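Handout for the seminar on molecular recognition.
Each group receives one record of this type.
Step one: identify the two inputs.
Step two: read the structure output and locate the region that could contact guanosine-5'-diphosphate.
Step three: write two sentences on what you found, then compare them with the reference statements printed after the record.
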Amino acid sequence: MDILPDLKKGKRGAIAKAITIVENNQIESKKLIKKIFKDTGNSIVIGITGPAGAGKSSLINRTAVEMKKLGTKPAVLAIDPTSHVTGGAILGDRVRMTESTDSGTYIRSIASRGATGAVSRSLRNSIRILEYAGFNPIIIESVGAGQTEVEISNIADITVVVFNPHTGDSIQTIKAGLTEIGDIYLVNKSDLSGTNQLFDAVRDFIGDSERNPIILKTSVKKNTGIVEFAKTLKELMALKKKNKPTKDAERLETELKDIVLNNIQDKIDHMLTSDTQFSKYLKKLQTKGIDPFDAGDKITKSLLK
Ligand SMILES: Nc1nc2c(ncn2[C@@H]2O[C@H](COP(=O)(O)OP(=O)(O)O)[C@@H](O)[C@H]2O)c(=O)[nH]1
Ligand SMILES: [Mg+2]
């Protein structure tokens, strides 16, 4: 069945089907992307990252509602490292995000575990599906930084880093390299004590950087700062649209290299299983007649000649 017309209309069932395809079926995925590729690349991707429990899902839920009021059509993809294991986290996110779903925002949890590169690939293509379906911005929720396979700042046009006052490790996290990636730093749960200290600490760490990132306080509980956050995002969307072509050109170069390397790896993998040199040197290696590096070099040479 052709799901393209429904996909173009932004119908939920079609989107869900399409994302399941790019997550699970390489052959069908290729066919699908071939058909939609020309109509993709036009939405701003907002990455929202921070430690588990920082309030990202809750915040995204409220922010999506506000962004909708500002005339945008947001969709959310949550990369959840735990969703694969129990499914409990998906439920949690669904509960926390019902408000924005009711208002018409598309929300989906996607798997964060898989073979190297596979998660980035399915994320990239899931974004394309949502672009084709007319969503803009596309908000990606991801836990931590460097904890998942996906480095969100490589994919996002706007990166938001969320901190909390009550987690003692927040400052450590700031030191650990988040200082370079954020366009916006949020001190969420600003209804809790310690907010001002954390705000000052964040400002001290990153405030004088050349990029001049924005630092905001939000509280989902008290519903403060969220309208301002949504407005800031909308302004940034317009700004980032200008340098998006340059960034996308670089990303496509990376993606293409990725695909070619992947293709070659698959081919070689396949070749090795029937390669006589491989089995010869493997036996030699297993009986300590050669060392692993020498064996590797010899096989490589014979393959590339
Ligand atoms: N006090 C307070 N709690 C919040 C706030 N935002 C979220 N929470 C709570 O923090 C917990 C984790 O929220 P969640 O959105 O799942 O965080 P995530 O793991 O970063 O997605 C939940 O119990 C939320 O109700 C806030 O602004 N203030
Ligand atoms: Mg969450």
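Reference statements: Residues 263 and 269 are 10 Å apart (CA to CA). Residues 56-57, 93, 141 surround magnesium ion (ligand 2) (CB under 6 Å).
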